[in-house]
């Protein structure tokens, strides 16, 4: 049982404390919620016996914040609340139950969107340029030529924001207007969700969304239970059992709730969805005595969960912003890709180039008169150097990449949740992966059972079946007598093998939180939070002891050998948690009236609870080395006096409002967890996902350094690392474990420095010691290793490691996981990938990319990542080149005409240049590919070049800058040399040569032609030629239709572009790219 169920499946919720010494300081569970949730309720943190010394510290820290920062405005203070039934003032006191996910409203939309847009350097610069045209001294050309492109860019972006926010508004309106029935003294009323208030009694039907946080008062089930689906709240796909308030469930009818005199106390609203403390106080109508019943999280229905069975009545305790769902809605920091950061840097360089060029032009003419006015005029003339359309082109390109990824049939089910990051997939240096459910299937199968003197594996399981059948058949005639005799000796004498096997199989069939559910078509399925649980229950069914039925108060088993049904009363259940690493249940056998406490859990905690033995640690280690997940099973018979003592003390602890968990824990440890009889150890196998071996091998060949972060023990993790080929054949494994002081850390790091090509395996405690005392030294060494396995790793440690690697190496880090415990790591990474798995959708929903299996990331990175990065790099450089070349032509033109700031191209020419005349061919570069898919996947070594960032660097930028200077200068100088009598001919010759040059340059840059590229080139050329007739101001058709015009344009275009073709051929001949050797 790797992870915490957190489903309050049955009867009593009772967190244990972890007795393992190491866990006093470190949280080492791989639970889905161990550190992930907001987490632990303040009361829970104070109450754990392990943290008893922290209680004063917590209080002191709270006081410090209040005393030291009185001038800081604190958030709205949350207080506990007492809500009477049928209160008249319930409408006014608490926050309204309105769902608001919109970013804007009618008033704030325009100001906020404009602010967000003009924070971007490109947009702000062009706004200032456009506004400068209202100053007469700075006016150059037509105002619309400056406002046109800016307005187009803003229109596209604002329209996208408006559409997104409108969709959010529609979702909010739909949710807020959903009708619900409320129970009132005047009868049933239908009210929209937004009108529900604290204190309302809401009637819920099957498959209906729960609109506010409620206490479950009654259900249609006689036993007061119902199931809810929580996948929209915590991402878990299993159903959770919830219990009605016992005294209200016993009322004869729903209408009787109207006559109830009582009130509900609820603790202050907080984020932890797995914690709630409350009481229901009411007056007994018969005796007139006030009675109080404890309420815990098992009595709650949280917002956005769905009622999965029957119907129910809930009492609203929190609404709107006070609900758990809203309080847990966080907006993680927007991730910005490295390519976007690099382009922002280049934009600033371009601005410096523009400023330097403007000052130079004025300088050549002499700084006399109003020279600064001329500087500004030149800045406006050269404004196209900074391409305003670049951001739009890149955003549209990212959208194309996202659609290509989602439509790839080889990786079906892949979802792009963050469309701004596809280029990042092509530059990953480190891959950090979860183990269970990510590298493995989370598809469990019980492979081994060890009972001290006996061990059973898959090929001998039939012996267990025969022993079990024999045990039940032998005990049939005198069931009660034999059962009493067997339990009575409590393991202190030798017993028949059959009865020992019966004990452990029966324990496994009873000690769990699995509930059998019959589907619509009569099929029986098992619902549980952990796949381990389901695997074990399925195994007991195969062995001949099947779970038939279960509800709040009873469990029914069927003996396959005899057909007999065994009934048990569930007295208490203590669910599995990440802190306790174990679960327990108290059962009363209806046939013998015996009360038994069963417990199962991780060996690290169970070894301190069970009776002394000399084989447990060794066998657990052996199973772990085989890659099996171990679970220790034990039991304790409780006498009537023992149980009554426990029940009385436990009820007292449950009613306490302060330190409730600590008091319940004290009772558990005092009465139950002493001297348990060890029944045996189970070994469950988690199979590797399909294609994991090949995927890890390919990624390692691609130059990625791979880390596996898991909550499992060292032996299991090491075994999975070897079997998954995370550790290659020739690599040694260097293990660091159980370090206690900094001196040991230094010694281990010294040893590790000499082992460059090995796999490091380190446990959570040692890892934390390294990070606390020698973080830089440890990261220096570890980041150079090809593979690292971190075991017993908490979610907080996973996220911390991610951030440290990012900061230390400055490389792009990709994290992949499938459970809620991986969310922190995924959000901390440059790129987060979530796998839709059996643990639910929480990781998938929080990730930037969602996949259905681990092997899909090979194509996602090596193919789609490569294409996205290469294409965006080429597209951005080409858009920059397009702006530079026309600015160089403007500079040459001004220089030849006495450095006068006169515009070469105006009006529709300057607007059309970046749009209809060049946009389609340039944007078609998003379909280019330098190598075929087969080559990219067959030779993952090609990926190493991408991580160096050579496709877009200062070197390539300045290369394109020089190309722009050459081409712009050549076109303008030749146009001047071939000057005709009228000025209009210079414009038509140079602009036509410029357009043809750009079309040829696009063709020069294309590696693999696509039909859309061909169409874009041809259609653009036809549009340009056709527009000549429509723009007589700029084109004299009588001259354009002459041979003089044709040959002059042809000469200018050839001079500007042919040398680049020759240079490209020479480079390919003598210094070809690495991929050309493979094609």
From TrEMBL:
List the catalysed reactions. Answer: a 1,2-diacyl-sn-glycero-3-phosphoethanolamine(out) + ATP + H2O = a 1,2-diacyl-sn-glycero-3-phosphoethanolamine(in) + ADP + phosphate + H(+); ATP + H2O + phospholipidSide 1 = ADP + phosphate + phospholipidSide 2
Q: Which residues form the P-type ATPase A domain?
A: 187-324
Q: Name one Pfam family in it.
A: E1-E2_ATPase
According to the lineage, what is the superkingdom?
A: Eukaryota
- Gene Ontology biological process terms in this record: endocytosis; phospholipid translocation; retrograde vesicle-mediated transport, Golgi to endoplasmic reticulum
What UniProt keywords apply to this chain's record, in alphabetical order? ATP-binding, Lipid transport, Magnesium, Membrane, Metal-binding, Nucleotide-binding, Translocase, Transmembrane, Transmembrane helix, Transport
Q: Name one GO cellular component term.
A: endosome membrane
Give the SUPFAM superfamilies listed for this entry.
Calcium ATPase, transduction domain A (SSF81653), Calcium ATPase, transmembrane domain M (SSF81665), HAD-like (SSF56784), Metal cation-transporting ATPase, ATP-binding domain N (SSF81660)
- Principal location: membrane
- Enzyme Commission number, as recorded: 7.6.2.1
Which cofactors are required for activity? Mg(2+)
List of catalytic residues: 434 (4-aspartylphosphate intermediate)
Task: Give the similarity note.
Answer: Belongs to the cation transport ATPase (P-type) (TC 3.A.3) family. Type IV subfamily.
- In this protein, which residues make up the domain named P-type ATPase N-terminal? 88-145
User: Gene3D superfamilies from the xrefs?
Assistant: Calcium-transporting ATPase, cytoplasmic domain N (3.40.1110.10), Calcium-transporting ATPase, cytoplasmic transduction domain A (2.70.150.10), HAD superfamily/HAD-like (3.40.50.1000)
Q: Which residues form the P-type ATPase C-terminal domain?
A: 845-1072
The record's listing under PANTHER family reads: PHOSPHOLIPID-TRANSPORTING ATPASE (PTHR24092:SF5), PROBABLE PHOSPHOLIPID-TRANSPORTING ATPASE (PTHR24092)
Output the InterPro entries linked to this UniProt entry. ATPase_P-typ_cyto_dom_N (IPR023299), ATPase_P-typ_P_site (IPR018303), ATPase_P-typ_TM_dom_sf (IPR023298), ATPase_P-typ_transduc_dom_A_sf (IPR008250), ATPase_P-type_domA (IPR059000), HAD-like_sf (IPR036412), HAD_sf (IPR023214), P-type_ATPase_IV (IPR006539)
Task: Identify its membrane topology class.
Answer: Multi-pass membrane protein
Enumerate the GO terms in the molecular function aspect.
ATP binding; ATP hydrolysis activity; ATPase-coupled intramembrane lipid transporter activity; magnesium ion binding
- Residues the record lists as binding Mg(2+): 434, 436, 818, 822
> Which class of enzymes does this protein belong to?
translocase
Write down what this protein is called.
Phospholipid-transporting ATPase
């Amino acid at each position: 049982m790797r992870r915490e169920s957190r489903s309050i499946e049955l009867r009593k919720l009772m967190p244990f404390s972890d007795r393992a010494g190491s866990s006093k300081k470190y949280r080492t569970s791989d639970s889905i919620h161990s550190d992930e949730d907001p987490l632990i309720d303040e009361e829970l943190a104070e109450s754990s016996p392990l943290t008893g010394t922290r209680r004063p510290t917590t209080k002191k820290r709270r006081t410090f914040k209040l005393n030291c920062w009185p001038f800081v405005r604190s958030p709205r203070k949350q207080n506990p609340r007492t809500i009477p039934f049928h209160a008249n003032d319930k409408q006014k006191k608490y926050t309204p139950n309105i769902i608001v996910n919109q970013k804007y409203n009618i008033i704030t939309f325009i100001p906020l969107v404009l602010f967000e847009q003009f924070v971007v350097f490109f947009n702000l610069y062009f706004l200032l340029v456009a506004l400068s045209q209202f100053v007469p001294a700075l006016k150059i050309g037509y105002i619309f030529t400056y406002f046109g492109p800016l307005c187009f860019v803003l229109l596209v972006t604002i329209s996208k924001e408006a559409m997104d926010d409108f969709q959010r508004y529609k979702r909010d309106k739909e949710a807020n207007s959903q009708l619900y029935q409320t129970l009132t003294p005047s009868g049933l009323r239908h009210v929209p969700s937004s009108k529900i208030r604290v204190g309302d009694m809401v009637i819920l039907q099957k498959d209906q969304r729960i609109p506010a946080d409620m206490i479950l008062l009654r259900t249609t089930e006689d036993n007061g239970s119902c199931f809810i689906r929580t996948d929209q709240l915590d991402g878990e796909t299993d159903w959770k059992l919830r219990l009605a308030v016992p005294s209200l469930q016993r009322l004869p009818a729903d209408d009787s709730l109207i006559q109830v005199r009582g009130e509900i106390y609820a603790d202050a609203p907080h984020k932890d969805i797995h914690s709630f403390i409350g009481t229901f106080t009411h007056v007994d109508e018969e005796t007139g005595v006030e009675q109080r019943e404890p309420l815990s999280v098992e009595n709650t229905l949280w917002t956005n969960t769905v009622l999965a069975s029957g119907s129910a009545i809930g009492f609203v305790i929190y609404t709107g912003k006070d609900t758990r769902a809203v309080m847990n809605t966080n907006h993680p920091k927007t991730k910005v890709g490295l390519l976007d950061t690099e382009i922002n840097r280049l934009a600033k360089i371009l601005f410096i180039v523009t400023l330097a060029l403007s000052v130079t032009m004025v300088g050549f003419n002499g700084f006399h008169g109003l020279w600064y006015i001329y500087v500004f005029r030149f800045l406006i003339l050269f404004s196209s150097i900074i391409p305003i359309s670049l951001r739009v082109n890149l955003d549209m390109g990212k959208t194309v990449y996202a659609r290509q990824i989602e439509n790839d049939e080889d990786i079906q089910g892949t979802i792009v949740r963050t469309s701004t990051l596809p280029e990042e997939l092509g530059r990953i240096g480190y891959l950090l992966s979860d183990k269970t459910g990510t590298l493995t299937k989370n598809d469990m199968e019980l492979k081994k059972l060890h009972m001290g003197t006996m061990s059973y594996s898959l090929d001998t399981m039939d012996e267990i079946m025969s022993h079990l059948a024999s045990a039940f058949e032998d005990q049939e005639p005198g069931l009660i007598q034999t059962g009493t005799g067997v339990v009575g000796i409590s393991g202190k004498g030798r017993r028949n093998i059959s009865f020992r096997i019966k004990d452990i199989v029966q324990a496994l069939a009873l000690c769990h939180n699995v509930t059998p559910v019959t589907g619509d078509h009569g099929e029986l399925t098992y619902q549980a939070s952990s796949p381990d649980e389901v695997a074990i229950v399925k195994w007991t069914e195969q062995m001949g002891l099947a779970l038939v039925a279960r509800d709040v108060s009873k469990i029914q088993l069927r003996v396959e050998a005899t057909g007999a049904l065994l009934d048990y009363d569930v007295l208490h259940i203590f669910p599995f948690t990440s802190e306790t690493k174990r679960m327990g249940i108290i059962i009363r056998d209806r046939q013998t009236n015996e009360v038994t406490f069963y417990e199962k859990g991780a060996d690290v905690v169970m070894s301190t609870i069970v009776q002394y033995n000399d084989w447990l640690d060794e066998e657990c280690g052996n199973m772990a080395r085989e890659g099996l997940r171990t679970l220790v099973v034990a039991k304790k018979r409780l006498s009537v006096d023992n149980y009554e003592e426990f029940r009385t003390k436990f009820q007292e602890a449950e009613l306490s409002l302060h330190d409730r968990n600590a008091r319940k824990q004290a009772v558990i440890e005092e009465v139950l967890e002493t001297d348990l009889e060890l029944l045996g150890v189970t070994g469950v196998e988690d199979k590797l996902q399909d294609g994991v071996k090949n995927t890890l091998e390919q990624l390692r060949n691609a130059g990625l350094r791979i880390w596996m972060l898991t909550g499992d023990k060292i032996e299991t993790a090491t075994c999975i690392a070897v079997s998954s080929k995370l550790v290659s054949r020739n690599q040694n494994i260097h293990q660091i474990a159980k370090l206690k002081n900094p001196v040991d850390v230094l010694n281990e790091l010294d040893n590790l420095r000499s082992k460059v090509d090995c796999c490091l395996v380190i446990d959570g405690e040692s890892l934390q010691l390294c990070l606390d005392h020698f973080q830089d030294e440890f990261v220096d060494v570890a980041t150079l290793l090809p593979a690292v396995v971190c075991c017993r790793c908490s979610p907080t440690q996973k996220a911390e490691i991610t951030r440290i690697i990012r900061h230390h190496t400055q490389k792009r880090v990709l994290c992949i996981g499938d459970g809620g415990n991986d969310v922190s790591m995924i959000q901390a990474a440059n790129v987060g990938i979530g796998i839709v798995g059996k643990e639910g959708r929480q990781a998938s929903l929080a990730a930037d990319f969602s996949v259905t299996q681990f092997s899909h990331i090979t194509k996602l990175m090596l193919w789609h990542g490569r294409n996205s990065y290469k294409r965006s790099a080429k597209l951005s450089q080409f858009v920059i080149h397009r702006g530079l070349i026309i600015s160089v032509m403007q500079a040459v033109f001004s220089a030849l005409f006495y450095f006068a700031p006169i515009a070469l191209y105006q009006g529709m020419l300057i607007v059309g240049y970046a749009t209809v005349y060049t946009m389609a061919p340039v944007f078609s570069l998003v379909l280019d590919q330098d190598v075929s898919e087969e080559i990219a996947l067959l030779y993952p070594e090609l990926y190493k070049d991408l991580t160096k960032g050579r496709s877009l660097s200062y070197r390539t930028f300045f290369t394109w800058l020089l190309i722009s200077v050459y081409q712009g200068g050549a076109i303008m100088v030749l146009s001047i040399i071939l000057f005709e009598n009228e000025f209009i001919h210079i414009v038509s010759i140079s602009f036509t040569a410029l357009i043809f040059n750009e079309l040829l340059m696009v063709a020069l840059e294309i590696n693999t032609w696509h039909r859309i590229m061909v169409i874009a080139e041809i259609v653009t050329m036809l549009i340009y030629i056709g527009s000549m007739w429509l723009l007589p101001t700029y084109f004299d058709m009588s001259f354009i239709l002459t041979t003089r015009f044709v040959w002059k344009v042809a000469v200018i275009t050839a001079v500007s572009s042919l040398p680049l073709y020759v240079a490209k051929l020479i480079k390919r001949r003598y210094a070809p790219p690495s991929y050309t050797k493979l094609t």
